[in-house]
Amino acid sequence: MKRISRAAAFYAFMLLSVAITLFPFVWMLSTSFKGPGEIFTKQPTLLPHIWTLAGYRSIFAAVNIWLHLWNSVVYAVALTVMSVLFNAMAAYAFAKLKFPGREKVFSLLLITMMVPGQVTMLPVFLILKSLGLLNSYAGLILPGSAAVFAIFMMRQFMMDIPEEILEAARIDGFSEFAIFWRIMIPLCRPIIATLTVFSFIGAWNDFLWPLVIMIREDKYTLPVALASVNGQYNTDWGMLMAGAVLVVVPAVLVFLLAQKHYIKGIAAGAVKG
Amino acid sequence: MAEVKIGNVSKTFDGMSRPVLRDISFTVNDAEFVSLLGPSGCGKTTLLRIIAGLEEQSGGDIVIAGENVGKVAPRDRDMAFVFQNYALYPHFSVKDNISLGLKLRKIPAAEIESRVRAITEMLGLEQLLERKPRALSGGQRQRVALARALIRKPKVFLLDEPLSNLDAKLRDKTRGELKMLFRKVNGTVIYVTHDQIEAMTMSDKIVILHDGMIQQIGTPGEIYEKPANVFVATFIGTPQMNILSKAQLKALGYPMDGAAAPAPDFNCGVRPEHFELASEPRQGWMEGEVAMCEPTGALTILTIAAAGTELRCSTALKFSPSQTRVWFNFSREHLQFFDPSGGNRL
Prior knowledge:
The complex is a heterodimer.
Chain A: H1 2-32, H2 36-39, H3 54-62, H4 65-96, H5 102-112, H6 117-130, H7 137-141, H8 148-159, H9 163-172, H10 176-187, H11 189-205, H12 208-213, H13 222-228, H14 237-272
Helix pairs in contact in A: 1-14, 3-14, 4-8, 4-11, 9-10, 11-14, 13-14
Chain B: E1 4-11, E2 21-28, E3 33-37, H1 44-52, E4 59-64, E5 67-68, E6 79-82, H2 94-104, H3 109-123, H4 138-150, E7 156-160, H5 168-184, E8 189-193, H6 196-202, E9 205-210, E10 213-218, H7 220-225, H8 230-235, E11 242-245, H9 246-252, E12 267-270, E13 276-278, E14 286-295, E15 300-306, E16 309-315, E17 325-329, E18 336-338
Parallel strand pairs in B: 3-8, 3-9, 6-7, 7-8
Antiparallel strand pairs in B: 1-2, 1-4, 4-5, 9-10, 11-12, 12-18, 13-17, 14-15, 14-17, 15-16
């Protein structure tokens, strides 16, 4: 009896947590289908009485959604692919190759994690300006394509892959790059899935960096474009929520696709410490 | 196949002052099965890794088929290595695990196909070709690791305790199979083990290592019959050889005249199976108390306490657990003599 009541309390707590987490999303979704009259009522309603696509129509009218969606896709996909590739290579070197000063260099890299991104934002902006990379995908993507945190996570994962497998490959005749590409990368699938989700969602939701780098409106990513339609004196909440739904859906899809591997990666990282 | 010459190899790991290998020299003849035997930490696996090129020696030469391979990369040494944990590629099928080495060496596909067929038939792996290593039992993984080594037809096979992850029964069976297998392919084999039974039963020659140094090189018979020093004498043989000082021998009342002793002072060793035992007094025999009786089936191992000394002996005679006193003797010809200061054979 005691066990049942304890389980009931546990499930109640979990359900409450889920409800609290989901509520803003549900509210966003519901508001995106409400007319302006229904958004501002004394008695808020969870679901719209009258379903309308007005919000969606206005957001498509206000900004060139397809263009900004394309910009966001380029940013998120390119950043994800490049960061997984570069971070995996660096992690492999730090985890499995022997070279003088390896631990020292790695410690230095870890120390840089203590410097907030905002501190380096201006210098990086100035560097990109002098390279003529403002308003370009390259300027948007390159600075984030190697991340110390991701290198650290991958290195921890790779350190647990037995050395003998790599040695067997060396004796079998694999080149060092083939060992990385054909042995290490497939064995790192869980952690790669995790980092893919991290960097895709990070780039997809990123607001500040695209805002700083992309000055021309046709280069805006979706979140920046969405913010730009926010009027100075009034906000069309229906339109804004419709835009937010469009931003959130791809991120949720990516998470669901990678979910199975993602959880493995997180758990593995946790055990290894 | 080829001859392997190890010449004055030494190894000290970075940041360590003590060398793990000191002045190791021996030759493995073509098609010979040589075991590197020694306790944990004696440097045997390090030596094998140096021969494979996975570790660099601090000094000395590795010569394979007349070529000094000291600076040659592992993949160009034409050796195969079987790891203790097998080190199969977890994401490749059994077939790929076996054949990848050949593909990387640009062997024609038809030839690979026929070699895979031959090797998998020989090792009974035909049914498992499409499986991933995680779907195999320990014994099957071990055979896949062997197949991966055999298929390359390398000059030398290096095996690092390949049986230690198998259960006792399977290990017994596989030991014989391995010996036959390598004889069949005429393989030059260097086999690392800490298990003296494996070394004694499989090898043409045994190299005994202790503390990074070679203690003795010889056939299993030589090593058992004529151990070079006290370490080898006590390391080989179960239960281990009894080592008695001259004073202990005297205290036991063993007749040892001056002419029979090889030196004024000595330690002497006597193997447990060389004891003669009786449950009643015999003329001229020594007497002791049964401290422990361990029946193992065919043999009984007795621990005898006599004159302040513990002796271990094995006998085919049946002893009842109630027996407390025992009379024993060993003949002069079975005694081995060692220098009491250095431990070397006299």
